[in-house]
Each structure stands twice: as structure tokens, then as C-alpha cells.
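To: structure desk
From: M.T.
Subject: fold request, one chain
Message: Could you run this one when you get a chance? Sequence is below, nothing fancy, just the single chain.
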Amino acid sequence: MEPDCPPYLSTWRGVTEGAPKLIELFAEEEIPVTYFVTGESAERHPEMVEALIGAGHELGCHGMTHRNFTKLSRKEAAWEIAASVQRLRDFAPVTSFRAPFLRFPSQFLSLLEDEGITLDSSVAKYKSDYFAPPLPTRLFRIPVSATSSVLRLPRWIRDPWLLSLASPVVLFVHPWEFTDLTRERLRFDCRFRTGSPALLALKSAIRLFKSRGDCFHRMDALPANATPTLQ
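Reply: Done. C-alpha cells follow.
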């Protein structure tokens, strides 16, 4: 939960228009999810944070302002984490973290530990950082399986791709993908099939995994149900 397609837009239609649609869809499908929320989102739209918690979902940390951690000093990174965790914990316990842009320097992992974070999902299998030698950490680390735009692909491409992913399959979407951004001046992967088509595609993907008998878990439940793939 963040501003619309950062850093390209500075509007909040995803939080005000897209997020309620997601909460409704997850309730309809009866699946739990984790929302990684920026502290700024919680300050601007506390009603949406309260709504997702009330629906039984996990509240996770996504930094304070959605800045790229690879461009921050250690002092700036410490502030981003501490300020956002403090703000989010006004609403609910927070133990999971994901960095904006799925970029998080390993030398900052201790900053998460200092703030009581126990799970990090800031590495993606489709990015070069995944193949770098990991630093020792007490964090349970779960990488992301595929980027969000994969879910908006046509079914004949998307479904075989999704079914080929190794367990645990970790997928994500942004609330802004469920508003119509097709006419915005954005990269193609950020705007194609956004709005109603994205919602239908997500529902279809959820039901694809259900048809295989898969279970859905919040991030905070993964340590008991999966083996970490990063050390």
C-alpha cells in the first residue's frame, strides 16, 4: 500500500479506490494476505489500515516514504524503518518487512532486527540481488517469486508460468493496479490491463491455485509452514 506507481505518480487512487476492491475480493475468496504499508499511507489513510486489519489481514512494513533503500545512508534507512514501524504499530503488531522496489542492502538487515522485525521479503528471484551471497541474519527471509505484472498477463501465458513456480509461491500486487491507469504516461508494464481487468485476473489466479489444492498464508504464518530459501 503506497502512492500510485511511485516514483512516476504522486496520487493516492490506489489506496482510496483500489484497496477496498482488494479487501472485498479477499473476503469473497476467503484468503488471508499481508499488506505491506508505508507509514505515509497509514498517516494519510488510517481508515484503510483499520479496514485491512478488521478483515483479518496482516499489517507489514513497507518503509515510511517509499524511498529506494539502495540510495539511502544508514542513518536515513534507520529512520525510514523506525518511523514507519512506530506509526504502523499504532494499529497492530508488525513483524514483517518488504523494501520498496524490492531493493534492500544486506548491511541494513540489522536495522530490521533492531526494530523487532522477524521476517523479510525484500529479495526477488527475478532480480540479481537474489544470487548475491547473503549476510548472516536472524531474520526469516522469503523471496518474491514473480513480479506483479505477471498476474495481468493473458491466462494462456500467466497460468503455466504461475504453476511452474516453486513453493512457497510469493506473489504481490499494488492497490493502484486496480485503478485504470492505461492512459497515464507510465511504463507499459505499470499500466497495461490495470483497473477491472486486473481484478478479474487476480481472482482467476487465486482460483487457479485453489484448484490445485494450495493453501494461502499470511507472511507471519510462513515460518511455521515453509522453509526459508535465504540464510
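Reply (cont.): Residues 13-29 form the longest helix (17 residues). Let me know if you need anything else for the meeting.
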